[in-house]
Amino acid sequence: MTHNIESMDNVGRFWNESVGYIIYPETFKDGNGDGVGDLLGIISELDYLRDLGVNLLWICPIFSSPMDDNGYDVSDYMTINPMYGTNEDFKKLLDEAHKRGIRIIIDFVLNHTSDEHPWFKKALEDPNSEERSYYFFRKGRREGDKILPPNNWKGFFSTSVWKQIGDSDDFYFHIFSEKMPDVDWSNPKLRQRYFDTARHYLELGVDGFRLDAVAHLAKDTSFENSSLPCDENGLCYDTDRFSNRPELFDYLHEFKREVFSKYPCFTIGEVGGGISAEKSLLFSDRETGCIDEVFNFDTAWCNGAYGSIDKKDDEIKTDVLGLKRSLKHWYDTCHARADMPLYWCNHDHPRVLSQYGSTQYRAESAKALFTTLLFMYGTPFIYQGDEIGMSNVNYTRPEDFFRDVGNKNEVASLRARGYNDEQITHYLNRVSRVNARTPMQWTRGHEAGFTEGENKTNKINDNYLEGVNVLDEMNNPWSILNFYQYAIWKRRSPEINNLIQNSRFQFLDMNHPDVVAYMHEGSENLVVIASFRPYQTYFSFYWAVRDVLLHNYADVILQDHVFTLRPFECFLLKV
Ligand code: GLC
């Protein structure tokens, strides 16, 4: 094993001392001028990341892939996608990151392969092959001269979960795009293939995995029709049939026994929206669980934007009370039993600045959102570009979103339901995950400094010309970027980290509809107060302020124990 992190303690649960950063490799930085981000580009920005203060990277998938779902459709787990570089480049990335005290977890896609993976090709070619048993093949239902899918389930990308093979009676199962057939984890041979792959990367020196779509590894293999209400195509969105089912935990315990427990690695599973905090302990309880942390989606859409095509802009408002309830519930359930991640958004969500912040108060709201997140109990993850206040796009037509297969299918489905292109574009500008997948804005120069060639990815957000870029942010002492850097430095100080991990934590004034405020009580008391509104609001406060550690306005208005909070004003205080 080539673990070689010289500048860090080899602490067991290193994620409790980490600030993470999520890289979407296609749009982070192009190192070879071909217009697409790559590993050389990431290597070239490792100093930037170290200086920002992060010490853990989650890199979205980098393996060979036909890129139907931007790398989540893997055609070879052992080879780096040539558009991102070579296996040698990956080795170099690990070494260079480790030299700088930065650990790397890779995105491991386990629920499905690409239909171009040799296993699936073999499975199609030879019905008697071992590979055939890695996937779910079922016969369709005959109705007269029509052949219908084996059941009425709908997948995550707006289609049936079944794809007919040519004009035969056979179908295969896929909960994402039709080019991503699900694999069958009940098959022990299949499980061994994944265990081997994980071992390979751990031996190479990776520090762990983000386990993609892990909640879906076990399915209801009766494949009976769902009785939930159907859509206009007779399809039912009954995700319980393929989410968080009991057998899943057997598979993951075996994975832990055979692989994870043998390495100093960090495993974080994407479990999505279908799981309660209580049930999440089945995954991440420190004593009895099978992986280290889980990403839930409960704090990702607390503004009513999900599925909001019929809503007007002014109906989209951050539900501060709901957000606090959810954060509190997860904290109360997990604290001292399980570790948990903290994040506002990732490559599957629109930009948090446009969701809960405000482009009108870009700097103020970016700082307030970050402060709120950073000092809570958990492992914070920054999504690339949030540190410079990147926001949602302003595209003009649905086709601008078509590099995302999920959006492409959704546009077809919305058009079929009678929405016009203007409505659809407006909606996708609000909710699409393409918002998070535009090129990182490094400078005001050519293609925002993302590539020396011609950008071949999603259209760049024009606001890089208005100062939303790394270089301009570096040169402004009061910028979002400089605030992030200072805040992370504070967060990683052993004194504050210790307080956050081990103290009593409580929300202050839970019923305040506009402000998120909380306190860690220990040998010292640490308080965060953050307004989530673009207008003035007030917050009563009865402690004596001993120090202002972070603040995003030039002066403080505190009179008779009441803070006057200007738009998105935030504090980190010692009291
Ligand atoms: C996860 C990924 C998402 C991808 C899906 C299918 O949800 O985060 O980007 O589309 O899995 O792999």
Bound molecules: alpha-D-glucopyranose
Mean pLDDT: 96
Strand numbers in spatial order across the main sheet: 13-12-11-5-2-1-15-14
* Percent range for β-strand residues: 15-25%
Stretches where pLDDT is under 50 for at least 5 consecutive residues are 6-10
The count of strands amounts to: 23
What's the overall geometry?
A: globular
**Gyration radius from CA atoms, angstroms:** 24 Å
N- and C-termini, Cα separation: 46 Å
Q: Could you describe the largest sheet, including whether it forms a barrel?
A: 8 strands, parallel
Total helical elements: 16
Give the % helix: 25-40%
User: Would you tell me the structural class of the helices and strands?
Assistant: alpha/beta
Detailed description of the structure:
The protein is of the alpha/beta class and 575 residues long. The protein is 27% helix and 17% strand. The protein is built from 16 helices and 23 strands. The chain has helices at 25-28, 39-44, 46-52, 87-99, 118-125, 188-204, 246-258, 277-284, 320-334, 352-355, 362-374, 405-416, 421-431, 470-474, 480-491, 494-502; strands at 20-23, 56-59, 63-64, 76-80, 103-109, 137-139, 141-143, 146-148, 162-164, 170-173, 208-212, 266-272, 293-296, 341-343, 379-383, 504-507, 515-521, 525-531, 537-540, 547-551, 558-559, 562-565, 570-574. The strands form 6 sheets. It has an 8-stranded parallel β-sheet with strand order 13-12-11-5-2-1-15-14. A 5-stranded antiparallel β-sheet has the order 16-17-18-23-20. Strand 17 (515-521) and strand 18 (525-531) form a beta hairpin. The radius of gyration is 24 Å and the shape is globular. The two termini are 46 Å apart. Mean pLDDT is 96; it is low at 6-10. It binds alpha-D-glucopyranose. The site of alpha-D-glucopyranose has 9 residues, from loops. Residues 69, 72, 109, 176, 212-213, 270, 347-348 line the site of alpha-D-glucopyranose.
